[in-house]
């Protein structure tokens, strides 16, 4: 599901006039409008009315394409997750250590650009929403595997302890980001550095 959306994210968007948009294009148009609303004010509540106005459609038409507010919110979260995966994918032209560093920092920046979406994803997953929980699990699995692969490229043997530490580190990062969103006591740059350095600190506990 997320992989399919990644491919769709890479596909060019048609600029056909509004009256002639196909259903998939109309959905993309509305999701693009949601993104613009979030970029204008990352801490603003993402309401159906705001997005519909930005997209130049009625709230009724938005519901027609997404079915309900909950399904619309899920579609926005899914699109954001696909973008995070694209932005944090390892750049194989970089040295292994830099691949990992740039990926971690890109992940933190992507979260801070749409903090309320990240918070909603974690809270809806924790609350047991099946669709969001599955999406969150997929997102974590892909990112954790990239981290593990990058750690291996640095010459570190991937033992069960190291693999467990990498997965545990991601939980630490999630908790840290969620806390920062609610109480930003350090700068975004310091937050990026903290998340990056914490991985080495956690991996250090696996050494005998």
Automatic annotation (TrEMBL):
Keywords associated with the record: DNA-binding, Transcription, Transcription regulation
Gene3D superfamilies assigned: Tetracycline Repressor, domain 2 (1.10.357.10)
HTH tetR-type domain sequence ranges: 24-84
UniProt DNA-binding residue ranges: 47-66
InterPro entries per the UniProt record, alphabetical: DesT_TetR_C (IPR054129), Homeodomain-like_sf (IPR009057), HTH-type_TetR-like_transc_reg (IPR050109), HTH_TetR (IPR001647), Tet_transcr_reg_TetR-rel_C_sf (IPR036271)
Pfam families the record matches: TetR_C_46, TetR_N
Entry superkingdom: Bacteria
Statement: the UniProt record of this protein carries the keyword S-adenosyl-L-methionine: no
Keyword Cytoplasm part of the UniProt annotation: no
Name of the protein in question: TetR/AcrR family transcriptional regulator
Taxonomic source organism: Kribbella koreensis
Lineage, broadest ranks: Bacteria, Bacillati, Actinomycetota, Actinomycetes, Propionibacteriales
């Amino acid at each position: 599901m997320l992989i399919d959306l990644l491919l769709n994210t890479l596909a060019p968007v048609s600029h056909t006039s509004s009256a002639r948009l196909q259903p998939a294009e109309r959905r993309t148009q509305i999701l693009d409008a949601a993104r613009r609303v979030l970029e204008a004010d990352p801490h603003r509540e993402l309401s159906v009315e705001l997005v519909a106005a930005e997209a130049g459609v009625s709230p009724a038409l938005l519901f027609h394409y997404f079915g309900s507010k909950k399904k619309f919110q899920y579609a926005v979260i899914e699109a954001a997750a696909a973008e995070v995966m694209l932005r944090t994918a390892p750049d194989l032209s970089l040295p292994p250590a830099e691949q990992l560093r740039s990926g971690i920092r890109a992940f933190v920046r992507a979260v801070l650009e749409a903090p309320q979406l990240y918070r909603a994803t974690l809270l809806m997953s924790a609350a047991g929403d099946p669709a969001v929980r599955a999406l969150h699990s997929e997102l974590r699995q892909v990112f954790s595997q990239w981290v593990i692969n990058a750690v291996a490229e640095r010459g570190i043997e991937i033992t069960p302890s190291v693999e467990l530490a990498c997965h545990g580190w991601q939980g630490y990062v999630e908790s840290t980001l969620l806390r920062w969103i609610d109480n930003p006591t350090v700068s975004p740059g310091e937050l990026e550095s903290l998340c990056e350095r914490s991985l080495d600190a956690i991996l250090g506990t696996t050494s005998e």
